[in-house]
Fold:
Amino acid sequence: MEKNKKNELELTKKVEGEKWEKALKKVFEKNNKKAKIDGFRPGKAPYDVYVKHYGVESLFLDAADIVVNDAYLECLEESKAIPVCEPSVEIKDINEKGIEFVFKIITKPELNIKKYKDLKIKKDKLEVTDEEINHEIEHLLEHYAELVIKNGKVENGDTVIIDYVGSVDGVEFEGGKAENYNLVIGSNTFIPGFEEQLIGMDKEETKDIKVTFPEDYHAENLKGKEAVFKVTVHEIKTKENRKLDEEFFEDLGMEGVNSEETLKESIKEHLETHKKKDIEDKFIEDLMSEISKNTEVDIPEKMVEEEITRLIKRAEENLKYQGISLDLYYQFTKTTEEDMKKQMEPEAFKNVMYRLILEEVMKLEKIEVTDKDVDEELKKMAEQYKTTEEEILKELGGKEMLKYDLEVRRTFDKLAELNEVK
Structure:
């Protein structure tokens, strides 16, 4: 990624006079309620006494927080600058008479899209084969398979109920013992080599199984150690595949599915829906990739950094759903935040590039979304998800975000119209 120092703009703004005095007084009134000054109850000391006791400087930073947003908005209005990132702000000067801010902002870079029409991008053909349908049926039959008691030896894929006791150098270790434990052979749940050695055992057979703990095992005292597990197999179960009969269709509980024919029709429809989305996604990706090759732009480094932060935040939220914190993820994967940032950089750069291209095409093709369009889409979404319009807006972040989303969708539609090979 090329580092770009262009599009950086420094704006200065002074806040003084009555506006600054009001901010100082507001901070004073808040702080004075907790002030401990001899001869005065909290909140009753006059301004000049408070300042003499604590110093006027004690009010400066909180007062700066009060006026900084208005100062920034005034800067943008005066300069007509349109920032694309959060600004950085510094205090150049501050005293009892006023404050001077320096805002450093990044403005939108200029794009030169040499070509975005007639790129002749081919869209994959939508096709669902009998082989794919049959594969899905086999998957369903396996999923609904029943476990039945088996008279015979343990084989790969069987489920066994076992007792085991693990020891290292003849001494049992913590967490190495269980009774009536359910284990699927081939699931790789246990230490490498453990499950394979159960294959061939009979019901009620006891056997010593020797394994070596991996060097990266989570328990420090067991890393790389040789261990012996005394294992007894109490029960062996095997999967008995289902048949496409009335009982199976009832267990499926799929609306309108009561025969092999209707099941195939339902699966075909399901596969077509997913494949259609995949085809559309691939077409858009191919299209945007091709337009990127025909686009000249210097993307500011800070835009990419902000996108990396957003991607990491999204990854963190996804991990939370799995009950894993980001710090724990770093421990498991033996990586750091810097490693993740480096890993995310190409995707972040691409996302920013695509966003800039879309916004430029939006302008070139005069893509517009009216307030009426937004209201209609909002109503439609509320009905679709069976919720209120207020909840939809809360989830999306407001009407402006919904409007932007509609603009992007219409721009994609326009690009597809301009480029797809019929």
Residues 2 and 285 are 22 Å apart (CA to CA). The mean pLDDT is 92.
